[in-house]
Design brief:
Elements lengths: L4 H9 L5 E5 L5 H10 L2 E6 L2 H9 L4 E3 L14 E7 L8 H11 E9 L4 H10 L23 H10 L2 E9 L7 H5 L1 H4 L2 E8 L1 H10 L1
Parallel strand pairs: 1-2, 1-4, 2-3, 4-5
Antiparallel strand pairs: 5-7, 6-7
Length: 210
């Protein structure tokens, strides 16, 4: 099965032989691909029972857990990368989980739908209703998304948390990029991908505290 484009982009950011923790790993597709193509080892965290069965069938190490409970079972710098694809907006405290990701991992990779894509803006400003789009397909009353944000919102949060953005790209819902995405990402990007780390000074301070 062909790997989804956003997962392929994430794979390019991960160094061969790394240890990876995948938060909300779904059916384990990303971890299985990384194992086969980049000799990656690691674990997936997942809450859905059907996805856990699929992970086991794919020989992916998976732990049944709720991400809202945090990552206290893992020690500092346990992984080279902690990945979370399109789950940030459904977490009760995304700010705390971002900090946990960068405590547990040396780098974090996060993807999420951009709430200020032009279709969402059109629904809000011209129709006066919560947006429904390819990236946000649910009605306001049955969506799992509770903390939607734009690229600018996310980068402002990173600045506040002393998180450094190492790399950013945006794609559409077919998980492809184009010149409009690159020219005006906060307007035309439907899904954002970020590679992050704690700012070096903060990481040194955390190690000294230990």
């Amino acid at each position: 099965m062909e790997l989804r484009t956003d997962l392929a982009l994430i794979s390019e950011w991960i160094v061969e032989g790394s240890e990876v923790l995948d938060l909300g790993c779904g059916d384990g597709t990303l971890l299985a691909h990384l194992r086969e193509t980049r000799s990656v080892t690691g674990y997936g965290l997942e809450i859905d029972d059907e996805n856990i069965i699929l992970c086991i069938q794919a020989c992916v190490n998976v732990i049944h857990t709720d991400l809202n409970q945090g990552l206290s079972d893992f020690s500092d710098d346990s992984f080279d990368y902690v990945v979370m694809t399109e789950a940030l907006q459904s977490i009760h405290r995304p700010d705390l989980l971002l900090l946990e990701m960068l405590r547990v991992g040396r780098q974090g990779i996060v993807t999420f739908p951009n709430f200020l894509h032009w279709r969402a803006r059109f629904s809000l400003f011209f129709c006066g209703i919560m947006p429904i789009s390819r990236a946000l397909p649910n009605e306001w009353y049955n969506t799992e998304n509770i903390h939607l944000c734009s690229l600018h919102d996310f980068e402002k949060l990173c600045h506040r948390l002393d998180i450094e953005v190492l790399q950013r790209t945006v794609v559409d819902t077919t998980h492809h990029t184009n010149w409009l995405n690159k020219l005006m990402p906060n307007l035309f990007g439907e899904i954002a991908l970020y590679r992050l780390r704690s700012k070096p000074v903060k990481r040194i301070y955390q190690r000294k505290k230990r």
